[in-house]
Amino acid sequence: MAIENEPYPFGWKHDGSYVNHNNYDVANIFRYGWPHMSPEQKRRAASKIRDMLHWTLNSSLQNDGSFRTVPAFFS
Question: What are phi and psi of 48, to 5 degrees?
Fold first, then answer.
């Protein structure tokens, strides 16, 4: 979580915003690490997953069911 706001390719975001590609990667990392996390780490990870899901449903999901892409970023 310490690198969340670092610039790509190290951090989670592109130009300060979530992107679907990185959200997917971060969620997978959390999934693999989940059994090894403390309760506090799980709480923080769950909160970040909620934030990413909220962004996806409210900023990326389009009316036709597709997702907004970022041409300047691999999506």
Answer: -65, -40
